[in-house]
Design goal:
alpha/beta, single chain, 8-stranded mixed sheet, 42% helix, 8 strands, Rossmann fold, binds adenosine-5'-triphosphate, 12 helices, binds magnesium ion
Length: 277
């Protein structure tokens, strides 16, 4: 089954779309829960779906059309009797490394309508589509959290909340964190850019398993917008390296652990069998 990770913000424009784009393009391609390669014909395994009620950005960044995209997906949901992997059907190649995009239109009203249509029936078509895929990730950029966006977060396997590192931004996160923790299956915080506090201290104060710092890295953002995969650079804390850490942590929570090997069987005596009953 494909996992669903929702990326959201609470205030301002902290970098939610950038983080969602980086996550979709860097998510390891070729594994499912058991570490198996997807079979031929089952791609795409990495999808970015834009469902931001203020309108999409990724198509413009990549010089793509906004169709096929969110509105085609939302329209097709009503007509599909056996939807299969409907989301993949409306996806466009995003990079040369195998990630795909279902873009939202730039228009806020149209993007909001598309997101709301998918949220009807408690995301039945989105769930069915994810179940039809054997592996991979669907990263959903829902933009700033409101009622519909929170219902996306509740339907997801994980919520990645993105904020800046200033005291004001963190105060806004703190104000809503208990409600979000109660909503999401699992959540973590990604703090973009300079921050005066250690991440472990923020995690402790907010009661989160994980707070990941994402460095301010304009070169990496340029590369992402060109569709180039992010790379580690020697001696520098790059966005690519930080995203690897974030993705590893998210996968630890959303993917089933590989089945533990059975313990070796120990022959038992008749007397021991008796005591086990
Ligand atoms: N890690 C980063 N390093 C450098 N620049 C970044 C980083 N993350 C985001 N930015 C920049 O910050 C600005 C906002 O980013 P982005 O559009 O991803 O935010 P957003 O939260 O999706 O905003 P919106 O609410 O408008 O959709 C952009 O100019 C983007 O290039
Ligand atoms: Mg955005």
């Amino acid at each position: 089954m494909r996992r669903m990770v929702v990326v959201a913000s609470v205030k301002g424009a902290p970098g939610a779309t950038t983080t969602a784009l980086a996550m979709a393009t860097q998510w390891p391609e070729a594994t499912d829960a058991a570490g198996e390669m997807p079979r031929t014909g089952e791609r795409p395994v990495r999808l970015l779906l834009e469902a931001d009620p203020s309108g999409g950005d990724a198509a413009a960044w990549r010089g793509l059309s906004d169709t096929p995209g969110l509105l085609d997906l939302a329209a097709s949901v009503r007509h599909a009797s056996d939807p299969g992997d409907l989301i993949a059907r409306w996806a466009q190649p995003l990079t040369e490394v195998g990630a795909f995009l279902v873009p939202a239109p730039a228009s806020a009203a149209r993007s909001r309508a598309g997101s709301e249509l998918l949220a009807r029936d408690r995301f039945a078509a989105v769930r069915a589509s994810n179940e039809a895929a054997t592996s991979g990730v669907l990263v959903v950029d829902v933009g700033r959290l409101g009622p519909v966006e929170s219902s996306w977060a509740a339907a997801a396997d994980a919520l990645v909340l993105v904020c800046r590192g200033g005291v004001d931004a963190l105060a806004h996160v703190a104000a809503g964190i208990e409600e979000l923790k109660a909503t999401a299956s699992w959540m973590c915080l990604a703090v973009v850019g300079p921050c005066p506090y250690p991440m472990a201290e923020i995690a402790r104060n907010l009661g989160l398993d994980r707070v990941q710092h994402l460095p301010w890295d304009p070169d990496a953002v340029d590369a992402l917008r060109r569709g180039t995969p992010l790379r580690r650079r020697r001696g520098r804390r790059t966005l690519g390296a930080a995203m690897e850490d974030l993705i590893r942590e998210v996968r630890r929570h959303v993917e089933l652990p590989a089945r533990a090997p059975r313990p070796p069987s120990v022959p038992t005596t008749g007397a021991e069998k008796g005591t086990q009953r």
